[in-house]
Amino acid sequence: MTTKATTDTPTADDTATGPAATAAADTPESTGSTESTESPQATTDRPADAPHADLVAVLGRPHTATPDELGGKGARLDELTAAGLPVPPAFCLTTGLFDLFLRESGLAAEIRAAEARAEPALTVREAILARDVPEPIARTILAAYEDLGRPRVAVRSSAPREDSAERSFAGQHDTVLDVSGDAALLDAVKVCWASLWSDRAAAYRSGPGPAGSIAVVVQEMVPADVSGVLFTVDPIGGRPNRLVVEACCGLGEGLVSGRVSSDFFVVDDRTLDVVEERVRYKVTKCASLSPGRIGMTKVDAADRDAPCLTRDQLAALARLALDVRDRYGTEQDIEWALRDGTLHLLQARPITTRPRPETSDDARSPYLPQHLKELPDATRHGTLWSRMDIGEIFVGLMSPLGLSFARHYQDHVHGDCAAALGVRDTGDVGLHMGFFQGHVYLNISYTAYLLGQAVPTRDQRHFTRRFVSEEVDLATYENPFGTFPGGMADLLSTTHWLRATGNEMLVMKGRARDMAEARLYEFDRARRLDLTRMGRRELHAELTRYLDYFHDAHVGYMPYYINAFGFYGILTELCAKWLGSAGDNLQNRIKTDMSSLRTVASAQEIWSETQAAKARPRVKEIIEAAPLEEVADKLRADPDGEAFWQSQMEPFLRANGTRGRQEMELTHQRWIDDPSYIFQMIRRYAADGFTADDIMGRSRARQEGDTRAVLKKLPLPQRKTLEGLISMYALCSELRETTRMSMITSIWLVRNVVYEVGRQLVDEGVLHSLDEVAFLDFADVRGYLAGELPAREAFSRPVIEERRRVHEYHNRLPEPPLTFVGEHDCTRAVRPVKEGTRLEGLGSSPGRIVGRARIVEDLVWQADEFQAGEILVTRHTDASWTPLFAIAGGVVTDIGSMLSHSSIVSREFNVPSVVNTKYATQVINTGDMVMVDGDTGVVEVVEG
């Protein structure tokens, strides 16, 4: 099993960071009373006395410390422990001990002077971290640690105003997790003390000035099997009598950072019955990798599709939450952990934000609020919305950053894309697209209305039926926008379209060639730049350059995409008309040799990389033995590995490196940013000994033979017509794939600048971590770089937290439909097929196969698990999944259409495929024996 580790991650109320993590990692693991390496200030002859014992409070026991001296977190945990609630044992180093540390270390006067001079907070932090803890204070801390039993602990900051009813101060101060040993404990305490002067804490307490004081809680670490949060009121929907629970495998840090999948439960607070449940497939969890080092690892296979919590455990958790709510008389945000079947309460704080109901019109419609106010009711309720076939770059739930970047595309690019198709009147670009539950939808009604100006789509049915899933019956559908005006407007539009289309036929090859050259130039230029050395003005210039390129790449790409789409549609209609039953699914075989397409060629190129690695024993050893996240560095550090990197990896990454999943989503790394997936596939291809024929079009000769045999039966005029259509489809498809890399690269370029801005915001303390870049708005990033607002105003903490909450709420909801008319109720539960034994979807690649299912939720983490011949079952795919198709026995997806990525690539590899099953990932389990019929669209579990 491959384990992927990360650096320390933040909890819901703290940021895990600091040198103590490193110190702890170098300290022998301690469980119970095992001795550890001592720091210089803590001698091996540990004293039994505690000179300042009155400045340390054992939580839950009698002591003289006031709530302010314990800090908000410490005071709350003290109350909960004293009440008999299941809180892990802890002690608190009061603000008095911290103040004593400042005086005895000589820092108090220095800090007062630094604050008077308004020196950067970093100066104060560095001064604290550089000081040794005075020996009497160190003895006091270590004596309390000894009394606790010297377990592995979490060391958490506790400022006086934390976790109050007014402000939570969540994430403003530091924590160090899984600390083991005396030296690491003392270092961790200093990290927490120093975090009082973090930039983010200063900003949250309203700017410069005296920082006050801070306490530190040292609490026994719970190596949780399951953990999560519970809200005693729906934090977004505001529904009454609802306890909302999110649970994940492992530590809660993975849930807070958004790196792991979680289960979602809603419990009725009157009956303790579970009234809603969404169990997700869970691949990774956050856990302790070594003392002081928290990172990601895999969830055991048996636990991946099982609920994190049983009904009894949920009821026990609900009773615990109600007890806490009753004690404080206000709604609570509760952190909890489950270890060996025992619940532990880690924290409880008042909910400081008012729930925002999600039942208004703007929550049920993709239209933006301003359009909801302006459009007639008949238009609002009659609009056809779809997220089918709008490019894999938009597939799936998107982050707030991704959605805002999609809006930039809509406002600044999409209209010019329509113009590039020969559409004279591009209308109101604000109506072209919509946004619903974190997904991007195309306004099919308005787009069909505008495309009525083009001769091939004068009949709107040619367009709309390509974007409609079985949820919508086109027989009863009427376009609320009507048809495009006739008369002179129609004549002008037709003339304009004919002129534009004729010109496109003349320039399409040359433009594709120019775009390919420009892509390599921009890619190479970006590789040479060091964005980390650029200030705001320089980054603004780079972003402006990249957005211009982004615009041109998309506008240049769109005609190839639409023309390939159009020729395919005509081909489908004529096959059905002229070939009858013999034409069933034949249009999927009547395709030119697609080996030149980048999405398919990437699989062959990874196979070539595999052969090159196998020819170099040292390279093969590094790739197979090193942790995935270390493979690239270890290759570059080895002479043979460096030679392989330069001769093989660099050309591959230049050609394919800007690929990634859900490519319009700026938060996702590309292959060049994280080549882990490439190394996973090299391992996979090497282990199973695939040949080039296995990887590329395993039955291409048979497909081509079928095509020739069928075409020969047609009369000459019909055969020539189909051959001409095939030729044009082949040309447009090839040019589409060539220029698609330009489009993808332009997004990667923009991403680079956005994440450099994010890194600088983390350094300034505006963001807690790079994970929070996902909750920025792209327009705010542009405005900030343009100098319109200072960082703290452009990226306000309350707005970031609100976006996080809404995104998490959308993530809990069932997948919205591919297409719907008017509005959709986001609270309506989606029920899987009974028994889960048979599913009916869309047969998108012919053939019938029986094989073992493999649910794949996370491509990078699970590529090494996938076995040749297994049935790939997932929600949706995009170009980054193609290398896996080369070894799959069949493909089944929750969403998709005949022209989705999974369908096209399945047909290319001659792999039976069924898409748009809606529930496959919910009702099929890894290891089930599954029959996939790509002709009828049926998927059936034939053996559990």
UniProtKB/TrEMBL annotation:
SUPFAM superfamilies: Glutathione synthetase ATP-binding domain-like (SSF56059), Phosphohistidine domain (SSF52009). Residues 355-364 have a biased composition (Basic and acidic residues). PANTHER family: PHOSPHOENOLPYRUVATE SYNTHASE-RELATED (PTHR43615), PPDK_N DOMAIN-CONTAINING PROTEIN (PTHR43615:SF1). Residues 69-358 form the Pyruvate phosphate dikinase AMP/ATP-binding domain. Gene3D superfamilies: ATP-grasp fold, A domain, ATP-grasp fold, B domain, Phosphohistidine domain. One of its GO terms (molecular function) is ATP binding. It comes from the Bacteria. Residues 1-49, 349-368 are annotated as: Disordered. InterPro entries: ATP_grasp_subdomain_1, PEP-util_enz_mobile_dom, PEP_Utilizing_Enz, Phosphohistidine_dom_sf, PPDK_AMP/ATP-bd. This is McpH. It comes from Streptomyces longispororuber. The lineage of its organism: Bacteria, Bacillati, Actinomycetota, Actinomycetes, Kitasatosporales. Residues 1-40 have a biased composition (Low complexity). Residues 866-937 form the PEP-utilising enzyme mobile domain. Signal peptide: none annotated.
